[in-house]
Write a structure and sequence with these properties.
Elements lengths: L1 H10 L5 H8 L3 H25 L5 H21 L3 H28 L6 H30 L1 H22 L2 E4 L5 H4 L6 H22 L1 H4 L4 H26 L1 H17 L1 H4 L3 H15 L2 H12 L4 H53 L13 E4 L4
Antiparallel strand pairs: 1-2
């Protein structure tokens, strides 16, 4: 539920660019930078805030994170000017940067190794479900009542997620260093860097197209977003189970190659709504296969520093969103929709080729038990 709120707040901007640009008197690429600044702030703040909050109990940290996220979005809904809206997105990103890696770490600590892929898929499923339900609903609401109404919807979702954390999440202790230097220590390992660069390229590819999807299609946007998000829900859940069954490597290559093909097919998908709906569903389903597999791969590479590894993975993910927002906006401004499609497909090809060169087939890719001690509250 927490990631559902975070994902809706992050991704729904893509469906609101026209509404935001009209009200704030800015261009569509400038409106797209709201997602870009969120992503950049997340990428920078995630390791810093992880170090500052390392000694906090995980449940308390989840509560603080969602509180900051809710406050940031409330300020976004109230901000009267474009610079102030940009500033409030940084506050919301700080909450998200604390929440999502912590939630994944808690899920890892609470499950046995053979079920870890499914647990991570469930937690991260909040992001894919947000794209299936929250984003189309928010896009429709923005068209009817304005983009600020959609941000208030995000605030309400965040409050629901906060209530859920308070009600049902158990107390969990996870060993983590409070030194910022330790947060970047895994970057000395080539295997870890390979995982992170794959994440960056993968999200650069997908979100170059997704951020500016309203400019790529002449068809009803909420329907296309709904189909993509529904496919994401299916792919994320299947990805967790298939990762447990067949290992992450197959899922990563299947997802990367399929996503790149579907990015190249955007002009074909724009020919008719039925084609677009099938395209969007398959793109979402096959693309989201990678998310649980990448988390599984990260935990396997850094079993003794799971929170640090997942935090770095999130940072590189959102760095990819930042790259997508900036370069996609420039491509749209200079070359139109064709430039965005070519750029997104190029990022996808780079992700496939890089991963082929760096991800060797392991003899066994099991995740050892982390050093954690989950403990439920008395009663």
């Amino acid at each position: 539920m927490g990631n559902f709120a975070v994902g809706t707040g992050m991704f729904v901007t893509a469906g609101l660019l026209s509404s935001i640009s009209d009200e704030l008197k800015i261009s569509v690429p400038a409106a797209g930078q709201l997602m870009t600044i969120f992503a950049l702030a997340y990428a920078i703040l995630s390791p810093v805030l992880a170090a500052l909050t390392a000694r906090l109990p995980r449940k308390r940290l989840l509560v603080i994170a969602l509180t900051v996220f809710v406050a940031g979005n409330a300020l976004t809904a109230l901000a009267p000017t474009y610079p102030l809206v940009l500033a409030t997105r940084i506050i919301a990103a700080a909450g998200a940067a604390m929440f999502t890696p912590t939630a994944s770490g808690v899920a890892t600590a609470l499950t046995s190794p053979e079920r870890r892929g499914r647990a991570l898929a469930l937690v991260m499923g909040g992001l894919s479900v947000s794209s299936a339900l929250g984003v189309p609903l928010g896009t429709w609401l923005g068209g009817v009542a304005g983009w600020r109404a959609t941000i208030w919807l995000v605030v309400a979702l965040g409050v629901v997620g906060l209530a859920g954390v308070l009600a049902v999440v158990p107390q969990v202790s996870i060993a983590a260093s409070a030194r910022l230097r330790d947060r970047f220590a895994p970057l000395a390992d080539r295997a870890v860097v390979a995982v992170l660069v794959t994440q960056l390229l993968m999200f650069s590819a997908g979100f170059t197209a997704y951020t500016y999807i309203g400019s790529l299609f002449d068809l009803p946007l909420p329907a296309v977003l709904w189909a993509w998000g529904l496919g994401g829900v299916v792919g994320n859940q299947l990805g967790g189970r298939l990762t447990d069954a067949y290992g992450p490597r197959r899922m990563i290559f299947l997802g990367l190659i399929a996503s790149t093909v579907f990015l190249a097919l955007i002009p074909v998908a724009n020919l008719a709504l039925p084609i677009a709906l099938v395209w969007a569903f398959l793109w979402g389903a096959l693309g989201w296969l990678v998310a649980p597999a990448q988390q599984y791969r990260t935990v396997a590479a850094i079993p003794d520093s799971v929170p640090i590894g997942l935090g770095l993975l999130s940072s590189f993910q959102y760095t990819g969103l930042f790259v997508a927002g900036v370069t996609g906006g420039l491509a749209l401004q200079w070359y139109g929709r064709a430039g965005v499609v070519v750029l997104a497909t190029g990022f996808g090809l780079a992700a496939v080729l890089f991963t082929l060169a760096t991800y060797r087939a392991p003899a066994a890719e099991a995740i050892p038990e982390p050093e954690s001690s989950p403990a439920r509250r008395p009663g």
